User: What shape does this take?
Amino acid sequence: MKLEDKISRGFALVFLSTMGSRVASLLADLFLTRLLAAEGFGILGFGLVMVNSLALIRSMGVGEALIFRREVDQQSVDTALVLSVVLGIGIYGLLFFGASSLSHLLADGDPLQVAEVLRVLGLLVLLQALGSVPGALLERELAFDKKLYVDTLPAFLYAFIAVGLALSGYGLWSMVYGRLLSGLASAVASWLCVSWRPRWRWNWDRFRQLGGYGRYAAGAAVVSFLVVNVDDVLVGYLGGKAELGYYTRAYMLANLPVTAIAHVANRVAFPAYARLEGEGGDTAELYGRILGGVALLTLPMACLLLLLAEPFTVAVLGSRWLPIVPLLQALALYGFIRSLFSNSGPLFNAKGWPETVLKINIFQLGVLALILYPLIQRWGALGACIATLVGILLSAPLVMWYLHRGGAVGLRLQFLSLRPLWWPSMAMVTVLLASQYGLAAAGAWSKLGAGGVAGLLVYGGVLYWRERQALFQALSLVRGG
Assistant: This one.
C-alpha cells in the first residue's frame, strides 16, 4: 500500500477507535458524575496526576525514538522493552513506599484512603511499561487497524466495569478498578496484535541511540505534563478534594470532545510526518491539511460548550454541579486553542527538533509558574482555568514563529488553513446567542436541544455554502480519503 493511502486509512481507523473509545468513556463519565460525589473525583484526579507523572519518567521517550528511527532491529526493541520494564518496576516501588507522604498534598483528603488509591492506581505504571513498546511498533508501521482493537476494547471494558461497580455501591473504587482492568486489557491487546516477540537482551549502543533522541522527547513530555497537571495539584492543595473534583470534571468535559479530534490527527501525524521526511514528502502540506481540518471540526464543539454550558450542566449532570459552569466556559476556549497547536509537536519531533517542543513547553510552564498560584488563591478552580487559558494564548504565537523560522510551515500557510473558520463561526455564535435569548424562560433540555441543533445546522450550512472545499478536506481526515 502507498504511503499516502496508509496515512489516509490511518486517519479513518484512528477516528473510529477514538470516537468509539471516547463515546464509551464519556457516557460512563457522565453517568458516574450524576451518581458519585465531587470529592471522589477529586481523589481520583489527584491519584491520576501522581501516577501519570511517574509514568512519564518511566517512558524516557523510548516509544517516540522507535517511531522516529528509519530502521529498527531486534536489539533496539529488546533494549527498549527491558528499559521500560525495569524503570516501571522501580518507579512503582517509589510510588508504593512514598504514597503516604504524597497523600498529604491533597488538602482535606483522608491520607490513608488517598495512599491506598495511589498504590492501586500505581499498578498502571507497570501495565503501561509492558504495553508501550508493542504499541509504539504498531504506530510505527501505521498498523492502525490493529490499534483499533487496542484502543477501543479497553474503553468499553472501563465503562462496563466502572458503571457496574458504581451501581453496586463501590463509589470511588469503581473508577479505580475500572481504570486498572482497562489498562490490563490494553497491555494484553497490544501484545496480541504485534508479531514481534522479545528476547530480553540489553545493548548499550542501542540504548545510547534511543536515548540520544528520547531524552529531548521525554523532557518535552515531562514539561508538557507539568503544564497540563500542575494546576490539578495546586487546586487540590489549596482548595481540597471537592474543588479539585469540580475542576477535573470541568477539564474532562471541556477537553474531551475537542481534543478527541486532535487526538485522531496526532496519533497518525507523528509516524506519517516521520515517513514523509524519510521519503522527501511534503510535511507542510499535510500539516496545513490537519490544522484546517481539526479547526473546522473542533470549533463547533467549543462554541456549543461555551454558550450552552449552563443548560448542559443542569440537564445532563444535575443542578448540584452548577459550580462548574464558569469553569467549562473558560476551559472550552483553552481546549479549542490547545487542539489547534497540539499537531505542531509531532511535526517538530518528526523533523528531529524535539528540543523545540521542550523550549515551548518550558515557556508555557514559566507563565503558569508566575500566575497560577496567585490566581488559584484568589478565585480557586476558576483561577486555574484563567491561568491555563492565558498560558496557551501566550504560547500560541511562539509555536507559529518556530514553525515559520525553521522552514517547516510558513505563516501564510498557517493563516490560510484557519481562514475558513471566520464566517461559519460568526453565524453559529449569533444563532446560539439568539436561541438562548429567545428561550430564556424554557427548560434546560429545551435550551440545550434547540440551541445545539440550530447552531450546528447554521454552522454546517454556512461552511458548505462558503467553504465547501475546506469542509470536504476536513471530512477526509475522518473518512480516509
User: Anything to note?
Assistant: The CA atoms of residues 341 and 411 lie 13 Å apart. The chain has a mean pLDDT of 82. Residues 241-278 form the longest helix (38 residues). DSSP finds 20 helices and no strands in the chain.
